[in-house]
Amino acid sequence: MPEYLNDWKKALEDLKPGFSILTDASEMKTHPQDVKMLHAEAQKLTLAAGLTKVAEIIQNDITEFQLDSLAQSTNFPKRSFKTAEEAETWLDSLD
Length: 95
Description:
With 95 residues, the protein is α/β, with parallel strands linked by helices. The protein has helices at residues 4-13, 33-48, 61-74, 84-92; strands at 20-24, 53-57, 78-81.
């Protein structure tokens, strides 16, 4: 994943502050410490670019715990959902 953060930076250049993200982590496995650090840095970059909230689709409780822990450490505004419909409804809400 040598270009992971550079790819994030390029993608963020095209976004305007106030954006939200829907991510499907339903097949994600737990990740090692070095990958966790990359995710943390990507979250910080995304917050700095003006992220408002993230909805994650997650099916695995262990993965959810890991991602929740990471989000808490970076103050990443995310919630977990079991379905895309629930996630999209929340993203479309004003809260």
